[in-house]
Amino acid sequence: MRLFKDVMLMTTCLAVFSVAWSVHAGNFFEDAGNAVGKAANDVGKTIEKGAQDTGKTVEKGAQDAGKTVEKAVQDTGNAIEKGAQDTGKTAEKAAQDTGKTIEKAVQDTGKAGETVYKFGVREMEALGERAKDANQRISEGKFVDAVWHFSADQLKDSNDNLAKAAKESDIVRVAGQIAASAYGGPGGAAAYAAWLAYNETKDLGLALRVGLITGAAAYASGGVSDLPNTDAAAIAEKTIMAGAIGGAAVAVAGGDQQAIQEGFLKSGGAVLVQSIYETQTTHELDARISKGEAYCMAATDPTAACAPPIEAYELDASGKPVVGDDSLPKVDVRKTDPMRPHVGQWAKPGESSIAQEPSLFMVSVSKYPGMNAMALLHDHVSYAMKFDPVTNVWTIVPATVVTYYGTNVPTDDQIRKSAEGEAQK
User: Fold this and answer.
1) From the CB of residue 368, how many other CB atoms can be counted at a distance below 10 Å?
2) 321: which strand partners?
3) pLDDT in tens, 120-175
4) 85, 195, 317, 367 - which has most CB atoms within 10 Å?
5) Alpha carbon 7 to chain centroid distance?
6) What is the pLDDT of residues 202-221, one digit of tens each?
7) Structural domain boundaries in the chain
């Protein structure tokens, strides 16, 4: 509006100047007519009319220019307002999408809890049935059979119940896949993939095939992951190599073109995430569960029993920890033990509310395969980028997704699904 007012003021000035010029020119040429006669007077009137017309033209042009500028300003304002509304709607949609993602994560977590509960109930019911069968055999004088079946049937029952849990909850299935790879390496990944395939199809040949392909792919991808991350070019080369391995493994499993492309992207993405994770945290992505006690990361006294290592603190000239505006000490989480529980908010000595790292709940969450690795990355990025409390919470979900894609689980899934799909043709 400031621009509009300036233009209107300029337009008004031009109009006043035009009128003044017309009057001045009229008087001047009228005097000249009296001096030189009627002929000159006619010429003066002609010039006076021309000057008046010129003034009116300038005045109208200025008014039109003012209106044009006013319309342009209004259009610009409308455009800015619409842009702001569109931006607001985009931000609102992003917030809604984030909310839905968090809501789904909560629902999945609830489903996982329900699945674990059902698994416990099924185990107890199976135990009751085994005890009943054992008692029946003993009453028939089959003591050896009773002992044998009571022990052997336990393995069968637990296997069936675990298979049901993996089928009912993605979180439970993924936890098993991540743990198998983290603790068992390529052999563990192969065994778990074969177990899943067998319990879903009851096809032993297919299960063995899935296990062999998964194990070979995990071994080859692991070799690529071990290559040094010297620079961006090296990381890109590792990503392409791993992608080729994943794509080839899916092709061998029987996947179509789309599945092969997804295998390439997932396997390459896993190595890319692992490389970025290592360059950011200075630690390899270790998806194993946490062990030990949680730090009291908010401790301003480095001598506290639960405080982080002194080398993790940023110290001032006097050797005391530097404390930020948020009243938290500046601590480099990368210099702490990556296996200690890191899930949750930082706490001071003696604090352990449900959302803080030392709480029983958060320590339990850090026992889910991959979650502690996620927390280490999230804490470092949050600290380095100075996230506000809201952003700090909202970025946990994408950090979890990124960490998940840093494992070989997506590729293992693609191999198994491709093989099962091929078998059904």
Assistant:
1) 21
2) 315
3) 888 888 888 888 888 888 888 888 888 888 888 888 888 888 888 888 888 889 99
4) 195
5) 49
6) 999 999 999 999 999 999 99
7) 2-98, 310-367+371-405
